[in-house]
Amino acid sequence: MSEQERFLNFINGRFVPPQGGDYWPVYEPATGHVFAEVAASSRDDVQAACAAAEAAFPAWRDLPSEKRAALLQTIANKIEAHQDDLAQLESQDTGKPVALARSVDIPRAVANFRFFAGAIQHFASECHPTSSDVLNYTLRQPLGVVGCISPWNLPLYLFTWKIAPALAAGNCVVGKPSELTPATATRLAQLCLEAGLPPGVLNIVHGTGTDVGEAICTHPAVRAISFTGGTTTGSRIAAVAAPLFKKLSLELGGKNPVLIFDDCDFETTLATTIRSSFANQGEICLCGSRIFVHDRIYDRFKAEFVARVQQLVVGDPRDVRTDQGALISAQHLAKVRNYLALASAEGGTILCGGDVVTPPGRCAGGWFLTPAVIEGLPDQCRTSQEEIFGPVVSLYRFQTEEDAVQRANATPYGLAAVVWTRSLDRAHRIAAQLHVGIVWVNCWMLRDLRTPFGGVKQSGVGREGGWEALRFFTEPKNVCIKFS
Ligand code: NAD
User: Fold this and answer.
1) Number of domains in the chain
2) Does ligand 1 have an atom closer than 6 angstroms to the CB of 250?
3) What is the pLDDT of residues 455-466, one digit of tens each?
4) What angle do CA 11, 98, 111 make, to 5 degrees?
């Protein structure tokens, strides 16, 4: 294997091997073959990254925000110039269709840098004139070194969603992408180098959560951790980081409800619910996995939904006709299949899908599954309550608005919800009652980067996006002046 196919750490502006000299294989989910290897780093590598970040911090902090913004814009331009390569790489690493990476993941990474390059130049803090001789004002200062830990489902999209605001606000970053998808983060490091980002401002340490992630979360220099991933991992991070008084932003799992009323625009609802169920193989935290449909349109919706789902093309992510690529790993495929077996045991009927697919040619060894629709599950069974994070949704029938809202709220999660209705009154009424961080009415995944993003209950703590992100990555300091 050549040196280029090794994803090395990026510390102090240089690509360096892990100090222990170990590597993990990186698989292409669509083929099941190893296509690269990634540094299997340790606490020592995290230490080196934190030392570099600490050393780089004073100069980066003191750089005027417009100069930091200009650097972020240059990085955005470089990502945009390489979007075709990055989309191919993202698809190779995750199994998602190249077309999806090209239209969603990579443009969003560009937008993340552009957005925070602009936002930091408009970021302001408060001033409280208390009386004629007392003035209070708030300084919002960067924290220093921050840790950014991201998952495998939207690798560059989510990694840049964290590091762009962190850097814009004047922090230095020690980042860790998922060990399953290290490719585009490594390519990003190269682009940052070419853009002239000073050494040590962004550092990337590859490896597992237990070896590297936890070392970042417990390192004394790291003042805040921005994490996106599973709820169990988030709970572990909170347990180790909270006693060290680190700021935490935790974006966790979901079991999102979709509420479809009989006055919806049927065709738009149907088309968008196909996407909200199965985009990225259902491996998006915001996918709607519990679909509640009003009794009056349940049978029609079910028939048309299942017919459309059966038409989705599962296959080679490089093929432009492909709707569904491969699942991230053999283990994840086995987990999703276990949930389908459990669904049957819990009283559900699998209306379609759930079959392992073996496409001909180069993808014969890949991890493909046809999208599955289940009905007849009790609300409180495990399949209805636990996050599956794959191409599986369940249909539920409801009679009244109150019933739908109560059942939508009856899980430990609270990330997002989708409501389909033409009634403005109902939309407002329900949006206020749902226990989630994000409600989409008559749409899904429509994002404005200025809005607060995050979940409640076991879906997380804190908010990303807009001013929320810049506030998270800064510490407010009140200055009270009395003048004579
Ligand atoms: P994961 O929790 O297994 O891993 C996420 C990241 O955390 C990886 O980089 C991993 O190496 C690291 N990690 C694991 N253990 C750690 C530890 N003890 N300390 C520090 N870091 C550790 O999640 P995943 O399987 O990569 O991603 C899927 C999950 O992410 C799903 O639950 C999904 O809902 C969630 N997710 C949430 C959002 C959101 O915005 N709320 C977005 C995308 C994905």
Assistant:
1) 2
2) no
3) 999 999 999 999
4) 55
Task: Please give the positions annotated as active site.
Answer: 251, 285
Residues 179 and 235 in one domain: yes
Residues 275 and 356 in one domain: yes
Q: Do residues 358 and 328 both lie within one domain?
A: yes
204 lines ligand 1 (CB under 6 A): no
**Could you tell me where the DSSP H helices lie in 133-230?**
155-168, 183-195, 214-218
Interval between CA 173 and ligand 1 midpoint (Å): 18
Ligand 1 contact, 230 CB (< 6 A): yes
- For the CA of 179, the nearest atom of ligand 1: 11
- pLDDT of res. 484: 86
With a 6 Å cutoff on the Cβ, whether 353 touches ligand 1 is no
The answer to whether residues 146 and 271 belong to one domain is no
- Co-location of 312 and 441 in the same domain: yes
pLDDT digits (tens, 9 = 90+) for 129-161: 999 999 999 999 999 999 999 999 999 999 999
CA–CA gap between residue 384 and residue 132 (Å, rounded): 60
Ligand 1 centroid–CA 148 distance in Å is 11
| CATH number, residue 279 | 3.40.309.10
Give the global pTM: 0.98
**Is the C-beta atom of 387 inside 6 A of ligand 1?**
yes
pLDDT digits (tens, 9 = 90+) for 415-456: 999 999 999 999 999 999 999 999 999 999 999 999 999 999
Angle between helices 83-94 and 106-122 (to 10 degrees): 120
Share of the chain above pLDDT 90, in %: 99
In a domain, 198, yes or no: yes
**How many residues belong to the chain?**
484
Q: Is the pLDDT of residue 477 over 50?
A: yes
Q: How far is the CA of 316 from the centre of ligand 1 (A)?
A: 26
How many Å apart are CA 137 and CA 477, to the nearest integer?
8
Same domain as 366, residue 346: yes
CATH assignment at residue 35: 3.40.605.10
Residue 145, classified by CB atoms within 10 Å of its CB into exposed (0-12), middle (13-18) or buried (19+), is: buried
Clarify whether residues 288 and 408 are in a common domain: yes
Domain of residue 294, residue span: 256-449
pLDDT of residue 182: 98
